[in-house]
């Protein structure tokens, strides 16, 4: 599975109602997109939940590389690039994915935490630790799902979780979830991915 995110940072005085309207009018277009486990349409507003910026930052979990490629090379991403400029797309390979006790709920918040992996860190033990962290997050009351993924180019882990209501504070960047497209969420493989 492939995790993916891009961040579009907007001016401090940007009307975030524009982003809300964009998601309301276009979010459903990926509700049946082949290869997509889920796309969480995420937004941060400057001054809310300790966010220093206004930002639109969708997060994807892909079941297939073909689905991810079809999106990146297709009309949806082209339209976003035409409206905001082509963003840098961050990409991670998934180590673990788990459903939480609130897996049937509509998520309202998301948390993302990045973790640098020092060069001297033994990788086999770290992979098991990172996978276990996804499991711990997913077992927390209010968790819809949690995953951990790694970018081996930059040696960075990303921990991502969706929450039924308020997310735990102080554990990462907090986002509002505006919509979730989840055509193949039920097909996402649970547990560690090796």
Summarize the structure in words.
The protein has 194 residues and is α+β, with helices and mostly antiparallel strands. It has a single domain, classed as 2-Layer Sandwich (Alpha-Beta Plaits), CATH 3.30.70.100. The chain has an eight-stranded antiparallel β-barrel with strand order 1-5-3-10-7-9-8-6. It starts with a strand and ends with a strand. The mean pLDDT is 95. This is DUF4865 domain-containing protein. Pfam families: DUF4865 (PF16157).
Task: Report the mean per-residue pLDDT as an integer.
Answer: 95
Radius of gyration: 16 Å
The CATH top-level class label: Alpha Beta
CATH names the topology as Alpha-Beta Plaits
Topology:
Elements: E1 2-6, E2 8-10, H1 17-26, E3 36-44, E4 54-56, E5 59-62, H2 65-72, H3 75-84, E6 89-99, E7 109-116, H4 123-138, E8 143-151, E9 156-163, E10 173-181, E11 191-192
Antiparallel strand pairs: 1-5, 1-6, 2-4, 3-4, 3-5, 3-10, 6-8, 6-11, 7-9, 7-10, 8-9
